[in-house]
Amino acid sequence: MTVAKAAQSAPQGARQFPKDFFWGASTAAYQIEGAYDTDGRGMTIWDKFTADGKIMDGSSAKVACDHYHRYPEDIALMKAAGFNAYRFSLAWPRIIPAGTGAINAKGLDFYDRLVDKILEAGIKPMACLYHWDLPQPLEDKGGWQGRDIVGPFAEYARIATKRLGDRVKDWYMLNEPNVVAIIGYGIGEHAPGYKLGEDGILKALHHQNLAQGTALRAIRAEHSDAVLGTVINLQPCRSQDDDPKNRAAAIRWDAVWNRVPLDGVMRGAIPDVLAEKMAHIVKPGDMETIKFPIDMLGINYYSRMTMKHEEGHPFDVFWGDAHCDRWTAMAWPVQPDGLYDLLREFKELYGNPAVFIAENGAAYDDVVTPDGQVHDAERVAFIRDHVSEVARAVKDGCNVKGYLVWSLLDNFEWAYGLSKRFGIVRVDYETLKRTPKDSYKWFAEVIRTGRVG
Questions:
Q1: E strands in 49-141
Q2: CA-to-CA distance for 110 and 114, rounded, in angstroms?
């Protein structure tokens, strides 16, 4: 089905979203750029994690989608779909190969070209400073486990915004600090691959918060007109049943997963249930630095979290029975109403701040038909159901400014390698050919009409 044919069958009626609502997609530098040893880029923790044989399908991101060379084609796809916003990340080691010190001019030149092309297409560039590709030399010095990383991150933020801030107004500090801390430092399934348990998780969370607050202040001091924020993967935590132990476990996990990153920047607070465990990590003045009046919060949402008490895991919490009948290829439950609950919570508990959906999408086992098309009905249904919940939240007065699908392209899905496809555009990893899926065409029609068909 072409976009034109989709338009002919579009439902009639009033718009469900305001005309200034921003629509688009998100990507991450490491997952799409490739060019891992090109033009002076430094080594990242994910390069080492891959070299150590930790990727499930044995693949790497050395080429990925080759966006570094093919970005004009990818931006043309965004423009054709009607995007007016695009969240992408900068690769810290492409700009400062060692993480601190010498600047790589060719890295900044690439992002100059990228930003100019995005603007030329009439799309708002939304830059994220850190989407997991920590320079390996900084990890060798302790990474997010220590306070020494705070200064280099603020330095990197100043350098990036000084170069691009005349054209890029929207800046987001971190992407999913909770995933970095828990999966990367707590249980070791992501780079850098450490199993440091509760203390490692809380140290990584706190030092990301501290670096973020320092960078926000550094940018604001030099760019009074910048739109500043961060991006957090937020998921309502529920107990699998009414057992008091399981209910307490869900509260603990909510504190770790949601409240440490969220209440840090929004309230300058640490959850009471974690105060004792974090007492040796938090120093005087830290929380004052961490709290910052951001302009926009990016929310990544994929599902609720259903938890149960189980000793032997960090915080004595483990996954419970989600009681769900729809699942993605990542074995994640499909729970669109959880997104509505999350947005209502922001309205009722946090003063209805400006938020946008920075990531929402699903991996499915796409099938390519003989004519080369991808009829990804499950992904269409997933996005449709979630956008419908956003429309419901907007109608109910939630201050939601935009929706960005994850992701524009099939890409390197971290520890899963190239085996899981989230894109609304298929990438053939042998030829690098891009093929818009049915989900791309459906999404383009939603953007055009401002309603969910």
A1: 85-89, 124-130
A2: 6
pLDDT for position 13:
63
372: left (phi over 0), alpha (psi -120 to 50) or beta: left
Tokens of 191: 């780079």
Q: Is 276 annotated as a binding residue?
A: no
- Pure H helices in 182-259: 197-222, 244-254
Residue 122 has a CB neighbour count (10 Å cut-off) of 11
Annotated ligand binding at 8? The verdict is no
Q: 3-state class of 220 per DSSP?
A: helix
Nearest to 59 by CA among 373, 410, 363: 410
Domain 3-449 has CATH 3.20.20.80: yes
Closest CA relative to residue 19, chosen from 451, 452, 450, 453:
450
What tens digit of pLDDT does each residue of 63-94 get?
999 999 999 999 999 999 999 999 999 999 99
Measured distance CA(149)–CA(335) in Å, rounded: 37
- Catalytic positions, please? 176, 359
Rounded CA separation 395/147 (Å): 43
Q: What is the mean pLDDT of residues 136-140?
A: 98
406 marked ligand binding residue: yes
